[in-house]
């Protein structure tokens, strides 16, 4: 810690903090937060970042240790108690009510009233005006405050959650992977708000695996590994490479080798698929052994396209063809998609991908019931063996197959979702934001898994908001913009500028669409 902090009183101090579930996840953590600074908290998934944050935010009680807020003992019994004392937290798991409007979610506990409060009348006009001010701060100007939160995409929901926590005064603000689903413009708006909060003397904890963001926004960095605090220093004193080494305990190369693959004939063909104006006549194919990326801005239609291919949403035009040789298939539900060999690893792993209270074994067997059942009854021994195989293969940090998935870190939960499909005879795998909220080490594990699946001859479609990630692992990248696929680029001819230009093409005032074949080299993957 530098000399400046030696002369200051910490806004928040944690001493000897530990937490044990089935096994210890935090041990003897001591850390100080100071007014007007951003502390970057980083580490691999399972390192204890979210657990420490939840303890500070009142969601979890520590097993050992103590905390002090502005010099006074601090032991919040709930999130509400922490917020009352000025400690707020924006979590990866959004704390929003989907059946209420954006405005109602923003001011749920402080709804403006008209007339005597006892009558309970809500001043709707004032509520909308207050909401517009709060939404403008995070770039949600174009959204009607009366829109139901459940009608928004997950990226916009994340911005609503951030806006909610920026309302009012606070002493400590914890941001847990706040930019995972945000565009570059939204990130800039968030960082502007962070600077204003620093000027107000707020102490911020910023959790992120995007190291370039940490270098841009953080004053200090603290690294957790295996539940212990292994490093703290001024951000200016360390490099990204040094942080990665501290996080994972080993060096990670800059290049990734997915192994030798044979690119074969198409296994998936999407022809003029569409639904209203959300997805508009999209066409592409994915070949055996190929990793096909889908890029685009939030709201471009990427997730909606994946859901239509999987049958979770029904298309009103176009066809999907599967197999060797390709043949059109009728997909009216996810069950139909699974029957035809299509798997979807959803971006919303907690809401759609997992049964959080259930053990790892039950979550993995959900996609493989025939393989673990005898005469229609699940064989616990087979189920446990299957789960242990996937835990070992994917390096899931867990006490064992019986541990509830809800106790795992976000990255390990994602591995469980992926593991569910590994034992099935799936030929097409749709990955929607597979590494969102996952640390550097776990990302490389998943990239390696994708390489294995591709070498087995499967066709992979990967949706990601991280352009560099797609450029690292994909053979081709299709770019979505305003519901259309505005370009398909091969590794030989893509650049970051060209991909970004295609992402904005559908939003220009003129018809700026690129024909897919204008940017695709025939035979370049053969």
Automatic annotation (TrEMBL):
Family matches, as Gene3D superfamilies: P-loop containing nucleotide triphosphate hydrolases
Domain ABC transporter: 9-251, 258-507
Subcellular location(s) per record: Cell membrane
UniProt-listed SUPFAM superfamilies: P-loop containing nucleoside triphosphate hydrolases
GO annotation, cellular component aspect: plasma membrane
Topology with respect to the bilayer: Peripheral membrane protein
Presence of keyword S-adenosyl-L-methionine: no
MF GO annotations: ATP binding; ATP hydrolysis activity
Keywords: ATP-binding, Cell inner membrane, Cell membrane, Membrane, Nucleotide-binding, Repeat, Sugar transport, Translocase, Transport
Cross-referenced Pfam families: ABC_tran
InterPro entries, per database record: AAA+_ATPase (IPR003593), ABC_carbohydrate_import_ATPase (IPR050107), ABC_transporter-like_ATP-bd (IPR003439), ABC_transporter-like_CS (IPR017871), P-loop_NTPase (IPR027417)
Protein name: Sugar ABC transporter ATP-binding protein
Organism from which the protein derives: Trinickia violacea
């Amino acid at each position: 810690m530098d000399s400046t902090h030696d002369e200051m009183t910490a806004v928040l101090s944690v001493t000897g903090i530990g937490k044990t579930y089935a096994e210890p996840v935090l041990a003897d953590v001591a850390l100080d937060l100071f007014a007007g600074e951003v502390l970057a908290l980083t580490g691999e998934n399972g390192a204890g970042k979210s657990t420490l944050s939840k303890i500070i935010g009142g969601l979890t009680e520590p097993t050992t240790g103590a905390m002090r807020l502005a010099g006074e003992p601090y032991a919040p019994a709930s999130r509400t108690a922490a917020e009352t004392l000025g400690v707020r937290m924006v979590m990866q798991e959004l704390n929003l009510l989907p059946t209420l409007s954006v405005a109602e979610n923003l001011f749920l506990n402080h709804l403006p009233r008209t007339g005597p409060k006892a009558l309970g009348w809500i001043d709707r006009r004032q509520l909308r005006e207050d909401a517009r001010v709060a939404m403008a701060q995070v770039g949600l100007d174009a959204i009607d405050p009366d829109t139901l939160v459940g009608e928004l995409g997950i990226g916009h929901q994340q911005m609503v959650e951030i806006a909610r926590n920026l309302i009012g005064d606070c002493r400590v603000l914890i941001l847990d992977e706040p930019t995972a689903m945000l565009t570059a413009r939204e990130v800039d708006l968030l960082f502007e708000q962070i600077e204003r909060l620093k000027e107000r003397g707020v102490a911020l904890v910023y959790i992120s695996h995007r190291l370039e963001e940490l270098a841009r926004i953080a004053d200090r960095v603290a690294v957790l590994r295996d539940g212990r605090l292994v490093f703290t220093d001024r951000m200016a004193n360390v490099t990204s490479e040094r942080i990665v080494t501290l996080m994972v305990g080993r060096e990670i190369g800059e290049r990734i080798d997915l192994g030798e693959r044979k690119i074969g004939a198409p296994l998936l063909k999407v022809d003029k698929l569409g639904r209203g104006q959300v997805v508009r006549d999209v066409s592409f194919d994915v070949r055996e052994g190929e990793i096909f990326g889908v890029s685009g801005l939030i709201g471009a239609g990427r997730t909606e396209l994946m859901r239509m291919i999987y049958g979770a949403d029904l298309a009103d035009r176009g066809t999907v063809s599967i197999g060797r040789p390709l043949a059109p298939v009728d997909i009216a539900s996810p069950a139909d998609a699974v029957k035809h060999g299509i798997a979807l690893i959803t971006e919303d792993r907690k809401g759609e991908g997992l049964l959080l209270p259930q053990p790892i074994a039950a979550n993995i067997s959900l996609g493989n019931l025939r393989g673990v059942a005898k005469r229609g009854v699940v064989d616990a021994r087979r189920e446990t063996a299957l789960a242990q195989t996937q835990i070992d293969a994917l390096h899931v940090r867990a006490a064992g197959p019986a541990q509830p998935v809800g106790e795992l870190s976000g990255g390990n939960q994602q591995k469980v979702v992926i593991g569910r499909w590994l034992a099935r005879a799936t030929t097409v795998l749709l990955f929607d934001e597979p590494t969102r909220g996952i640390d550097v080490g776990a990302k490389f594990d998943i990239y390696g898994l994708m390489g294995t699946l591709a070498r087995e001859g499967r066709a992979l479609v990967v949706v990601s908001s991280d352009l560099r990630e797609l450029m690292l692992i994909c053979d081709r990248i299709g770019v979505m913009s305003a519901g259309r696929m505005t370009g398909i680029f091969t590794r030989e001819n893509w650049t970051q500028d060209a991909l970004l230009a295609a992402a904005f093409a559908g939003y220009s005032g003129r018809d700026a669409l690129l024909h897919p074949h204008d940017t695709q080299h025939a035979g370049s993957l053969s």
